Fold:
Amino acid sequence: MRQVRAEQPESLEVVKVRAMHKPGLLPRHARPASAVIGEVGNGFRYVIDGWNAERILLASEAIGDGYWFTKRGVEYANSREVYGRKIGTNQGVQFPITDAYMKIRAADMMRYEGARLFDAGEPCGAEANMAKHLASEASWAAANACLDTHGGYGFVDEYDVERKFRETRMFQVAPINNNLIKSFVATKVLGLPRSY
Structure:
């Protein structure tokens, strides 16, 4: 961008974006003391605490999806018969569902720990981030196990697997990408050097 600006200054027009401009608001430095929530200078800290609550809530949703996928996979494995026996008797079907279930349970425990700390007003950034990460990964594992169990039927509308399969993938990238959570844990929890 800098190179384009230097070589072709006429090709770029910088336009100031004024999103959410409201006439009549006081300038930032002139807010009355009665309008301040919490302590002056800690506003960003309060925003981050809100993000922790959001991550705990998203972990809850991903965990719920994970339990849903596991239940659907088990139901289908117990009902579908191939060559005279239920497909759930095969370890190749059992183990992925079981592995996903154990991951969901572990994520659920981290989610509860994050929620406990948040409710107690204690720092919970690490737990909230880890809960979101673990839950999104567990939900994705359960989604894959469920889809694999259903085979081609997993893409048929009547089972609802394909719809939720697409939805649960979002938890790995929004509202924060799991790689950023790994960076946070690496630097803030483990004390590793910053990588970005």
